[in-house]
Design a protein that fits this description.
Length: about 210
């Protein structure tokens, strides 16, 4: 059966921007929804800097590993991160932006593969803080390599639950009508302690 291997890692220091074959020229993208949050760091729990209305022009500077979060600059020169699914480009490919390893965050990372070790894309995982009355949650989806990257504030601590939650229409597990798939992750989730150094891999099996 397909298997998921998940590993939580700490990303608190800067890593070099991934090299690109050609020099990157920043280009304009725009929000396509109202109330898009510009955040200090990537991740749904990061500090909010401002709220952007629909059709706000932004200069695209880079993207996180996994491509879900975009580093942008506003027209008044504020730097921050936005959730990539709320931004569109009329010309250049957003995925052509250089990879930037974010600093000052904790990164919970995992990989979803099939039985032969091939990647499975488009599967969402939730990372929730356990044992608190106020639910703190962020989500991340596996990319083309089957890897998900969930970013949490650097001061995150305690026990966190990592859980498979959904499958997107773009996933290789979904049928062409986006209505049917087979199986689920077992166990559905596992705990990870934050902060920390190297964590033991979390093993899931798709049944």
């Amino acid at each position: 059966s397909p298997a998921v291997t998940a590993l939580a890692t700490l990303s608190a220091t800067a890593a070099p921007v991934s090299p690109t074959a050609e020099a990157y020229t920043p280009f304009l993208v725009s929000t396509w929804a109202d109330n898009v949050v510009l955040r200090k760091d990537p991740g749904h729990l990061s500090q909010q800097l401002t709220i952007l209305p629909d059709n706000t022009a932004l200069t695209l500077l880079g993207r996180t590993p996994g491509g879900e979060w975009l580093m942008v600059k506003t027209a008044d020169n504020r730097l921050g991160w936005v959730f990539g699914k709320l931004v569109e480009s009329t010309g250049s490919d957003i995925q052509a932006a250089p990879l930037i390893e974010p600093t000052g965050v904790l990164t919970v990372r995992g990989r979803l593969t099939d039985a032969g070790g091939g990647p499975i894309n488009g599967v969402q995982f939730a990372i929730l803080q356990a044992g608190v009355s106020d639910e703190r949650r962020t989500d991340a989806m596996t990319d083309a390599e089957g890897i998900f990257y969930a970013f949490l504030p650097a001061d995150s601590k305690g026990s966190w639950w990592v859980e498979y939650t959904a499958i997107s229409c773009e996933s290789s597990l979904m049928d062409p009508t986006c209505t049917n798939w087979t199986g689920e992750a077992e166990p559905k989730g596992m705990y990870v302690q934050l902060p920390g150094g190297a964590y033991s891999p979390m093993q899931f099996t798709w049944r």
